[in-house]
Amino acid sequence: ASDVYKRQPPDGDRVIRSSLQGTFPSQQTAVGGVVLEGNASLDELTEGTDKVVAILETASFEGFELTVTGSPIYLSEINDYLSGGMLTLGLAALAVMAVILALIFQVRWRLLPLLAVLVGVIWAFSILGLIGIDLSLVTISGLPILIGLGIDFAIQIHNRVEEEVVLDREVHPIAETVSNVAPPLIAATLTGVLAFLALRISKVPMIRDFGVLLAVGVIVLVAIGIVIPAAALGAREWSSRTKDRDDSMVERIVVRLGGLPTSAGLPIVLIATALFVGGVLVEGRTKIESDPIRWIDQGSQTVEDIERLDDETGFASTLGILVTANNVFDQDVVDLIYGFTVDAEARPEVVATSSLVGTMEKIIDIPGATPIAPTTVDVQNAAEAMPPDIAVVLVRPDLTATQVNLRLAQASLEDRSVLVDELAADLDRRIAELDIEADSILLTDLPAGQDAVKATPAGLATVGIGLLENLSANRANLTYLALCLAGLFLVLRLRSLSRALLALVPVVMAVGASSLFVGLLGFELSPLTTVSGPLVIATCAEFSVLILGRYLEERQNGLAPRDATDKAAGRTGRAFFTSAMTTIGGFAVLIGSALPLLSDFGIIVTLNVAIALLAALVAM
User: Computed over its alpha carbons, how large is the radius of gyration of the chain?
Assistant: First the structure.
């Protein structure tokens, strides 16, 4: 008889006890967890994750294959990429810009704008570090954006200096350039600054910081973009004056685009209005990519491991619920947790739960018998038997808090938000229905107005949900506020409502076309692409204000409107086309990023800059 008990049963007859199913989902799979310190920064989390992974790589489990995955691994991959990959992208952007300048910008010292933008970016990030702007998932992407925006300032100064030297034969070309170009450059910059500062109303801290980063960055870049080219070209022209300047096809094309008849003005305004209204109408269709796994390289080992975890265990993430009371071992609290976890496990979205109460419930459960909740004594005995490393995760030493962990199936943040809301509502209902006796410890020394029992969902799952909700909350308002601030500044700066509206026509056109593009083609936004609206406004406003400024300058010089338009287009065409191409080239580098989070952003902003330039030239 003893041999019968020692004999191993067939695989089909072997059953994993319910209390152990969270650790052993199947006979071939075991799941363990490493709990990292809470509320750690991304850098601290990455450091801790790397140390854990390094230790596990030295571990040997005979007959088993080890897979290490989870949210910390995912976040660590993003952090590692942004720390090193973004610098690589910045250098790649500079290389692409160098090629574009060499091919298109037909001037002497054509790579000088790169020196200005490089110095400007170094200064900008140094100042940002001094004022305490931390680099994050969003703000680190400001590097290629500032490179793309900053190159334009230096190109405009460089182009105008050679124009004053060769075409107008000015005795003091630097002074003439700065006096004519600096005011509209500064006006265009301040318009962009106000558009970027509109991001301060975002409910996402890293997007608010992103607005400050761009605002400070463009101010620094316009200053450097004026000073370095002006100083370098002034020294060059003093010792070796430029003698000729070839006419270019670019300038002729720009004159043609800007040479539309005056009668086209009203249709252009109507088109701009229609595009803007259309963009507003499709704004509601635009969705935010709510699955964070889709933000990273889909061919990476991290994604493969996350998918394997889902396949083997059925879960992809965990949701922690912190239950607090004067004594969480009180029977009322035990019954509340028991009822909640039983109902939660009945949901298809919840694969399993883990808690002290839940473990005891499964241990005392007998198949076929009526399920019952564990008693306070059961839970106390279990707590006494718990190893310290387990106890520190599940129960606070003074028994005022305990944790319930829910393992959740793979889902988008949008779907998970619904689940968490329903679970929170269920907990609130159960707490409200508690019938606590007057002499219960749960009411002892309880401050007035405070609940005897409180349950709070927490953890990375709720952080992700909060991010999604905050991104969705006032995304469109960021664009509209940026447009209003830019328009108000232009009215004050130009001291003319008609001129301000004229400058805003291409801006409105670009904003509408951009929204239509994103909405109709089904692009799903991410934390980065949600801020593309103010970026479109700042870029297009820069083109528009500079073109308008040159037109007004030529009108003040006595030219007729048609002649002023043609001269403004011809003289600035080379600079605008070159700056647009270099800006597009800088942003296009993001398309090659391994992170869909950045590559989608690169696609959208690259197209937006092209739309902005075309709108500014057509509306000239």
Answer: 31
